[in-house]
Amino acid sequence: MKTKVSTVPKTMEDRFDGLTPSDLNDLEKRSLVSLAMTLLTERNRHGQTLGSPDETRAFLRLRLADRRNEVFGCLFLDNRHRIIEVRDIFQGTIDGASVHPRVVVQKAIQFNAAAIVFYHFVARHKMVIMCPVFLCAPRD
Questions:
Q1: Bridge-partner residues for 120, per DSSP?
Q2: What pLDDT was estimated at residue 139?
Q3: Cα 134 to Cα 16: distance, rounded to the nearest angstrom
Q4: Domain ranges in the chain?
Q5: 32, 70, 80, 108: which could form a disulfide with 92 (CB 3.0–4.6 Å)?
């Protein structure tokens, strides 16, 4: 009888355990953010399901971390909450952003989205994720 040998080590080491931002220089911080964005992009690529509000919040927090202006955007999802598209639709100044609902609806139709998650990022690193909106098409 053959035994299956695993190539994965039994104990995985967390090389980042205990690491704090003050331990890193600016170049290392930028590299770490870039690596995190790459990982989130792979995890939340087109067709992937957003499993929870915490996953959505983490994805958007890193995606918007380097913004200096106010941003209003949308995550366009299909009927199984898989990502179709992520778009920053409106950008503003330090004190406001104009949002035109007609443009949001046009984008939703363009991407054939069944659901939308709105996000609003203010330049002082405050982010509001609004409740998802589910679009319904009339049945024939």
A1: 72, 128
A2: 45
A3: 39
A4: 24-134
A5: 70
3-class secondary structure, 13: coil
List, in order, residues 6 or more apart from 58 with CB less than 8 Å away.
40
Can you give the pLDDT at residue 138?
45
* Region of residue 5 (phi > 0: left; psi between -120 and 50: alpha; otherwise: beta): beta
Average pLDDT for consecutive 10-residue bins of the chain (140 residues)?
A: 56 79 86 80 68 79 76 87 87 73 90 88 62 49
Q: What is the distance, to the nearest Å, from the Cα of residue 4 to the centroid of all Cα atoms in its chain?
A: 38
CB-CB contact of 117 with 75 (8 Å): yes
pTM confidence score: 0.62
- Block residue for tokens 């589910």: 134
CA 58 → CA 55, 71, 87, 120, distances in Å? 5, 17, 16, 14
| β-sheet bridge partners, residue 77 | 83, 115
Q: What is the pLDDT of residue 6?
A: 53
Return the structure tokens found at 78. Answer: 């299909």
Q: Which residue has the tokens 């179709």?
A: 84
